[in-house]
Every structure is written in structure tokens, then in C-alpha cells.
Amino acid sequence: MTEKKQTHEIGDRQTGSGSDFGPRPLKGQDHDGGGGNAMVEALPEFDWEKELATKIRGKFAMAAVGDLTMMRPFGPFADESLQAVLSIIRNADVGFANLESNISDPPNYTGPLRGFMGVKEVATDIKSWGINVVSKCANHGFDSGPEGMLATLRLLEDAGVQYAGSGRNLTEAQAARFFEIGHGRIGIAATYAVEEGTDATRAADAWGNYTASRAGQNTLRLTRTYNITQEQVDQLRTIQDSLYVLDEEITTLRKPPQPVSGPAASAINLNGTIYQAGGVAGTIDYIVNPEDLRQQFRQIKGGKQYADFMIASIHAHQAKWVAEAFPEETSTPQFLIDYAHAAVDQGADVFMGHGPHALRGIEIYRGRPIFYGLGQFVRQSDWRTPTRADFDAFQTTPETTPLTPAELGVLRTAGPGFRHRAMYQSIIAVSRYDDGQLQEIHIYPVDLGFDRPLSQVGNPTLANEKLARDVLEHMQRVSAPFGTEILIEGNVGVIRPSSR
């Protein structure tokens, strides 16, 4: 794989000039968790660099899958193809997934029921497959409010599945978590990328005697900016100026529009939306909140110092191109590339990306795998308890509707994107190590059954030869920009970084 330079300038444009507005990236600053390098230098003499190495010894395998939108268990099913998929995970030492939905014990759960809420058996079912760690930090994590989220965490704990990214307060949600296996201690830190104004699920810590703590998620807050041409920036400035009309009816004047900090001619904030010239027109840049970034890297680095193998995870729906339609967001935004590289620099042994329900590329950076988008592994999104929004969407009520819950569920997900074949094609990625060195990654194509009966749609089975070829060729295309070569051997993709 091509060796990439270490990158800490999260949120910079690809031109390298950086953005001149919003939260600043941490340029030239080590992500040491606060206090600066002076405090680090004051530590007793110790080889801290070795603590960031992959410390797992012997032969070790990790299986990774994407989103689980799961309402009911299916592990007991005798379907040979389904069991073949689950055996791939069971045969690994660690199984990772992003648990998109929530779970509860209906007779004992008194909180709200909204969105994707599965039964309690989901927790024990995924554990039976070999999934022993999940990211629990995503856009559906708060569907049923803090009650639903906390019920989910309790059931995961009861099932012996470790999680990261949610908690009773922000400190818990941000914290690295750990569990032990025969090979050693595994750590995970997880976050969810949100844009300004969409972070209502963010957890909070108590602040003195003024505010109480709040259960929620560990969000990574972003500022979105649109790249356009200089001519278009000038046109928007003319429009902005035309809106500032002085009339005798006005008794108190607002401040006139102020230029975005930096070169006044290159960027404009038009009614809360920022546009800039200098990048590739039609693309989107994102700048990460520096405090969120500092805390996240502190957890990754600190987690790795205590763990033999560290997982960094992010749920990120953000697209690179304005014109790229959901769920076909297969290109990777620059902020995600920068963030993944910096996470590895801070000690992450593997980087797990998920969110857009589409398969993105794979990169090997400094000998460690980065999965930019693992797709969706279970999609039972049609199977859910109808909510008021479901009935309102079709101007009906539970008492008067002729539709069954299943029909309502299908209709609610029948819009553009949600019933797209690409969302029903996925992978299992198994990374194999020997004494801490990545040897191979095996990519197993998975079929979620777009054309199956509703009772079977969304459950993972091995892809047939044609679909496997399509999925693997797609993975070759989206991974090539990262210098990653994927060989196709039968129905399996293989990456051999040690051979390059």
C-alpha cells in the first residue's frame, strides 16, 4: 500500500490552504488530551511510542461488519447460507458491528417506542454470532429517547457485548471501553459525526450547581461548507448586500453582513450557510470542532495505552459531493480521511467507518486497515411498530387504516434511496494478524435479499457468484484511490499488504 504522510490538520481543504471560518482545526498541535507538550515532557522517562504499537501476539483475526438495523433475532434459523455467514464471524477472535437500532424488554420497558426498537433477544442473538463489541452511537441511537438508549445499553451489558459511544453522561459516552479475550485486552472508542444544529442527542456532564448531566451520545460536531467558484461567491455577496435594505420603518439596525474571517473575497456566510472558493466546485468540506477532536483522540490514545488492540469507530453519513445521492455515497469526504489517519497516528489498530449504508473504500495506512464504509449487515427496517409519524404520513389513524403494520413499514421506506439494491449488498471484512502484523484481509460479499419475501428481507446470506463479483469489483473501484489492491479469489476478495 502507498504510505501516506501523517495528517493532523482535520478539516483542511484538499488544496491545503485550510478554511477560514468556524471551529479551527488543530494545526500543528499534538492531540495529547490537553495541557500541551510541556506536561507530556514532564512525565517520567518511559517509552510511550511502544504503547501505541499493535501489542496482540500470535495469530489473531477480527471480523467487521457494518450497520445492524435489527428488530428480531435470526441466529436460530437453519438456512445454510445464513449460517455460513455467521460462522465467518464466529471463527474470528473479535466481531465488530455498529448497532443502529435500539432494543428493549417490552413487558418491563416503560419509555417511548419510536423508530427502530428491537426485542431484547437481539442482544443475545448477535453475541451468539460472535459479535462481542459494537459501536452504539448513530443517528437512530436516540429514536426512543434516553430511556430507549439506556435500556439498550443494559441489555447489551447483560448479554456480554461491549459498547462505546453512548452513556449516562458525556464522560461515559466519550470514554474508551475494554473487554478481554484470550489474546489480550481489546479497546474501543466510538463517535458519531453530526453537523451544526443536529446534535440534540449529544450527552452532557453536570456543570456545578447549574445543570444536571444528560444521557446521550458522543457526537463529533462539524461545520459544513460548500465549495463553489469565485464568480459564484461574488454573486452571492451581491445577493447578500441586496437584502440589507435601509427603510424609514426600521428603528433599530442590525449589523450589516460581515465578511467571513480571512480573505473577504473568498468565502461568504449567507444566512447561516457558508460557501467558499478555492476547493473543487461541487464538493463539501467539513471542519471538526476542536474540543470534540481533542477529547476523541485523547480517548483513542489513552485507550490504546491500556489495550493490546484498539478500535476507533465513527458513524458518518457525510458525502463528498453535493450531487451524490443517498445511499450511493461511495466517495469519501476529505475530513473522514484526515480523521482516520489521525486516529491511527494516535494508536488505533483498525478504523471502522459506517453510516451511509453504502460500501466505501479500504485503505492500509501505516500498516493498519481503514474501512471507510462497511455498509449494512442487517436491514430489518420494514419490521417495526408503527409510530404516529407513520400514520400521519398517509393521513390515517390506527383505528381507521386498512394497512397492516408490515404494509405501513414498507410504504414508509419506499421513498428514493431506501429501497435501493445497493443497500442490500454488503461485506464481512476479516483482518488477520500474526504477532501484531497485518497479514491479510478477506472480504466476503453478503446478500441481504432485496427480492426475498418480507419475512426474510434484510437477513445476511452469502452472495451468489454473480453478486459476489459485482460487490468485489465495486470494492476494487472505491479502494483503488487509496492505493489498495484487492484480488478476487473465487467469491472472496483478498488484500495482502505484506506482499507490496
TrEMBL record:
It comes from the Bacteria. Pfam families: PGA_cap. Residues 1-39 are annotated as: Disordered. Residues 61-381 form the Capsule synthesis protein CapA domain. Coiled coil: none annotated. Residues 1-12 have a biased composition (Basic and acidic residues). Belongs to the CapA family. This is Capsule synthesis protein CapA domain-containing protein. It comes from Rhizobium leguminosarum.
